[in-house]
Amino acid sequence: MKICGVVAEYNPFHSGHAYHLAQTRHLLGADTALVCAMSGNFVQRGDLAVFEKYERAEAAVRCGADLVLELPLSACLWSAEGFAWGAVSMLAALGCVTHLSFGAECADLPLLQRAAVLAGQQQEALRNSLSLGLSYAAAVQQTVLSVDPEAGALLRSPNNTLAIEYLRTLSILSSSIQPVAIERKGGAHDSGAPVDGLPSASYLRGLLATGDILSCRPYVPTAAYAVLLRAVRGGAAPVVCGAVNQAIVAHLRRLTPQTLIPYCGGQDGFSNRLADAIVKNVSFSAICSAAQTRRYPLARVRRALLRAWLDLPQSVPPEASYVRVLALGPRGRTVLHRMKQTCSLPILVKPAAARTLPQPLQPALTRDGLADDLYALAYPAPALRTGSAYLRKTPYFHPSLEP
Fold first, then answer.
1. Phi, psi of 293 (to 5 degrees)
2. How far apart are CA 171 and CA 165, in angstroms?
3. HEC per residue, the chain
4. Distance (Å, rounded) from C-alpha 188 to C-alpha 264?
5. What is the Cα 331 distance to its own chain's centre?
6. pLDDT: is 401 or 290 the higher one?
7. What is the pLDDT of residues 252-272, one digit of tens each?
């Protein structure tokens, strides 16, 4: 059986995601198991996921995924480089993944691989670009563009950038996992309207933020929509950063330029700019807007501030310390049995298993639990905002292979 990894956020799961899973299975064979490494309650753009990780994982399994595992928290709040490293290294650690499928604006795999090789070879030029104040994505693009305009042009699109980082990670790991590129369809990243009936996740999040869940219906598979509707009606969605604005700002006001440094990834003046914005503004969004510059893009600002709120310094590596199962189906259960023989990391299925993990892993569990407790403060329904839910939640099991 082929086992194909997929890196995702599913924030929320929509028809474009269903298309990617279906195309992957079409290319690799109907019996291919799809194992998704999915962001938890915090996502790479520096935000809270629009609804909770176990429910997003359930939506994915109901719509074609076989097994959903949680990405490391630190990887979820990293640039494309760390995000890709955390995801791919975790999938490689499972010991049974044969393929990695990703969506990209360009599905020309040889060209993507060429860009990945060039990005890896031009590390000195990359460091020089970063020292000039470019974001990581812009620095990689400029570096590759200077030696190969065709390959460098790919990096103007965010999914191409992630695809290249996935390929770089596979190369660094000397992994036998075979990459599969699927051409991305539908609305562009952060686009304002669906294209050919396929939306961007940001478009759907915008609808949810206004309470217009019915307008999401045409763009979300029936089974995933049922999960989303249940979350909305139950007061568990939409989760928005503004709901915990005071909690975030109150914590940030305690910090100084010096104490912000561990969350900023260096001493390049970024912490000074963040501290100034924190003092002069009264909301998370206003702080982000004030701190944002060409050198410090909005996503980097948001990630740094959320890391400070979660007490997650960048010294915490993006690699997984353990593997947490969020949802699975029958084929996923088969993969899970195989993983227990091949995985180099501890696997958590039920909450009670966390107590059996070695002592060196307990700080990671505590950190992840705190993040989930802080996330819970943003639920629309006050009754859901209690802590320690992560000690009670168990993976969703979908009893059928049919979505």
1. -145, 180
2. 10
3. CCEEEEEECCCCCCHHHHHHHHHHHHHHCCCCEEEEEECCCEECCCEECCCCHHHHHHHHHHCCCCEEEECCHHHHCCCHHHHHHHHHHHHHHCCCCCEEEEEECCCCHHHHHHHHHHHHHCHHHHHHHHHCCCCHHHHHHHHHHHHCHHHHHHHHCHHHHHHHHHHHHHHHCCCCCEEEEEECCCCCCCCCCCECCECCHHHHHHHHHCCCHHHHHHHCCHHHHHHHHHHHHCCCCCCCHHHHHHHHHHHHCCCCHHHHHHHCCCCCCHHHHHHHHHHHCCCHHHHHHHHCCCCCCHHHHHHHHHHHHHCCCCCCCCCCCCEEEEEECHHHHHHHHHHHHHCCCCEECCHHHHHHCCHHHHHHHHHHHHHHHHHHCCCCCHHHCCCCHHHCCCCEECCCCCC
4. 29
5. 24
6. 290
7. 999 999 999 999 977 678 999
Q: How confident is the model at residue 153 (pLDDT cuts 50, 70, 90)?
A: confident
For residue range 63-81, what is the model confidence (pLDDT) as tens digits? 999 999 999 999 999 999 9
Mean pLDDT of 178-195: 77
Angle between helices 245-252 and 284-291 (to 10 degrees): 50
CA distance 72 to 88: 11
Do residues 86 and 316 make contact, with C-beta atoms less than 8 angstroms apart?
no
Which CA distances in Å does 82 have to 58, 73, 145, 193, 270? 26, 11, 22, 30, 19
pLDDT score for 148? 80
130 within 8 A of 136, measured Cβ to Cβ? yes
pLDDT at 43: 97
Q: What is the pLDDT of residues 283-323, one digit of tens each?
A: 999 999 999 998 889 999 999 999 999 999 999 999 999 99
Distance CA 339, CA 354 (A): 17
Amino acid at 182: I
Measured CA to CA, the distance from residue 388 to residue 378 in angstroms comes to 15
